[in-house]
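From the pipeline queue, job 12 of 40. The input is one protein chain; the requested action is below.

Action: predict structure.
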Amino acid sequence: MQYCTECGGLLEKRQIDGYGRFFCPLCHKIYYQNPLPVVAAVITNENEQILLTKRAISPGKGEWALLAGFVEIDESPPQAILREVKEEIGVKGKLGKLIGVYEGKTRIYGPVIVIGYKVLVKEQNFSLSEEIEEIKFFSPGELPPLAFSSHEEILNDLWRIRPNPVPTVDVIVEREGGVVLIKRKNPPYGWALPGGFVEYRESLEEAARREIKEETNLQVKELRQFHTYSDPARDPRFHTITTVFIGKGEGEPRAADDAQELKIFKKNTLPSHMAFDHKQILEDYFNG
């Protein structure tokens, strides 16, 4: 940087506030060189392996790293990391917990502030951007050297933090003398009750109504809580606790979002292959 972007004057290097900064003697503009904000995602599969990307661009070209990118203008860090996940590997993510904030430095961009998040993904039909050469899941004990020390710090802190179970909702939607089930489009596959993750600042009831609308196109009436299921093995991806609701479905049913197919089942016609612990949930419901 040689010339002022405001008036075109020749810049000087001066000590200001204890730092060497570029200064314009004509218009008195001070140029502050602040660290760039970066977000990084820790994505795991059902075996608790870590997703790493082999970078196709510098810095760290040809090296392994967490999925990461810069925060854009007018964008929050949570928005940035979900955008990066979609852009870089082609799937929709759900924001998990904040792992921590870290200092970093790159040869090209200088100092950076790295914000690490846990990100949950439902699907694994990844499509890579031109910035990624390869992706692979690694077990914690088999991680390759990482391109950035801040990414190593993120993983070290993640393993020091005891993860909390993830809250979810499932709904037994009563219709035409049976219950509405969906065939899942993403793993774990099989027939299942409609439901999903509870969003931040969303009540359980709000989450239940939203998921029903998204997956079945139905409005749910007379919603009431049935039971809570918390077996750590109920979801093969990670530990979830689900609150199950019962309600009556109104409207025109249509499979959407995570649902590949929708069908109404009665007690004696339930499918043999069901995801999660939904077979047990329906047995409790029909036998209650």
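Job complete. Helices lie at 77-89, 149-160, 204-216, 278-287.
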